[in-house]
Every structure is written in C-alpha cells, then in structure tokens.
Automatic annotation (TrEMBL):
The chain crosses the membrane at residues 235-255, 267-290. Residues 13-166 form the Glycosyltransferase 2-like domain. It comes from Pseudaminobacter soli (ex Zhang et al. 2022). GO terms for molecular function: glycosyltransferase activity. The keyword Transferase applies. This is Glycosyltransferase. InterPro entries: Glyco_trans_2-like, Glycosyltransferase_2, Nucleotide-diphossugar_trans.
Amino acid sequence: MAHAIGRDPSVAVLLPCYNEELTIGDVVARFRETLPTAVIYVYDNNSSDLTAPKARAAGAIVVRETRQGKGNVVRRMFADIDADIYLMADGDGTYAPEDAPQLINTLLTERADMVVGTRQGVTSDAGRTGHAFGNRLFNGLYKRLFGRDFTDIFSGYRAFSRRFVKSFPAVSGGFEIETEMSVHASQLKLPVAEITLNYGRRPEGSSSKLSTYRDGARILWMFAMLMKETQPLRFFGIFAALLLAASLTLMIPVLVEYFETGLVPRIPTWVLSVALLMLSMLMMVTGLVLDSVSRGRAEQKRIFYLSMRSARAARAESGAPHAKDRTV
C-alpha cells in the first residue's frame, strides 16, 4: 500500500445496513482480514432480521440509526466517526473487501479527497435491467448538468479523506446520497479519482432495497434541487425561457391583429401574455440574485473545507516523522 505520510493513517470502514443478515458477517470478516488495522462500523438502519448480532459477532462496532434511509445513516456515520481515511461500502457483498487497499492506495497516491470504485459490468447484469437503464440515464444527465468528473455517480464503494467527510453537508435522506456527494465534489472542484472494480451479485435470498421507480423519482428530484442550489441562474433561466416562449406565442397574434386593425378584441389573451412575460422577467431576476448567493455559499464551503487540516498536516504538527511518498 502507498503512504503519503510518516506513519499509517487510521482507517474506518463504514457499512450502512438494512436487513443484510445473509451477507454482513462474511463482509465484516473479509474487511477485517484485508484491513487488519481498520476499525469496522456497521450502522443498522432498523433491520428486522439478525443483521446487528451477526455483524457484532464478526467483530464490527454496531450502532443503530433509527431514521430510515441510507442518507440518514451516512450523515450519522460522518458525524460520529473520526479517522484519517473513511472507506464506505455496502453490507450486501456486492463490493469486494479485497479491493479496499486499491481504493486507499489511490486516495493516498493521488492525494484525492474522494475515490469512487466504478462498477464494472453493472449495466450488463440481467437481474438489474431497470437499474442499468437508470444508471445510464442519470449518469448522462449528471455529465450535462454538473460536469464530467464521474462516470458512476451511484457507486456505494468509496474512499474519503477526513477533509471531505467533515465538510460534506449530507442533506439527503435516501439512496440519492451518492449523487449529493458527487455534486459536492464537483461544485468545490475537489481532487477526485475513479478506479474500475468488479461488481458482484447478491446471494440467493437477498434482495435489493432500491426501488427502480420510487428511488429513481427521488434521485431525479434531488438532481433538480441540487441544480437549483448550485446553478440557480441556469435553473430559473429554463423556466424564464419557457414562460417567455409561452408569452410570445400568445402575444404575437394579438399584436399582429392590433397593427392591422387598430383593435385588441382578445383582451384576456393579451392580459395573460403580459402576465407570463412579467413572470418570465421575475424568474430571470430571481436566478440572477440567487446566482450571487450560490457563489457566496460555494466560497464559504471552500473556505471551510480548506480550514480542515489534511492528514499530512495533522501528522506534521503532531511531530510524526515525515516520509516521501513511496509505494510498498
């Protein structure tokens, strides 16, 4: 493993879980074998099966989060746990714990704040046809709206720096949390990286907690809300353009008739077109004002992020010996 600091960083493995009794014991055991010095946390999200006792028996620290939803669990994890490196995965066994050193190595050598394990073969899994289409759709939409930093915004296998974790607001409540993470990194232009990893199938008897339509709609709503918060001029500009187009469609025939006859027989149409024009102007002004607010918020987020000491700086201040980057 590569190290960019004088001694090994502390690593926390984060496993949000809901009814994963069939796999969680094996996942925890494999992470303990792969990362023997890491502390493994399992946050049980109101499971009705034996997820918690099996995780505890395998050697994990188990904490219960009563607010339902992956986003709520991740927010609690990020607030509770202190470490230099955070590794987040799922408890269903679809992400291989043996790939964890590769994610950590990339985080250190690239000096990144987030490394995403993109899922190889996820779009060709016959058991996830609807999910595969949604992945292609939303990843394409993300690139158009927020940039080309990521090719798999829904991957749950990620490594984070302490800076990222402690500066991430984590507003989402459900599976849209990965989208929020990606937008946060793109907006602040944080150093990120991706590596392609194999993506496994769930074992027999285990089912996905992701609903294709319900969670797809929630993710789409999150896209809209994040666009409103990070790109308000673009967001409100779209509505302004639509209202302007509707206004002109109604207004032009009335104006043509007025210039030809000197009369305005369709008063209600004229009033409606003018109202739509005023709404269009209001939307545009709203976008301009909120764009300045959004830029100010982004600057504040960036300043707060920079105020967090990196692991390298923390060790330098603590007197730990400094070593040049090396690969073991």
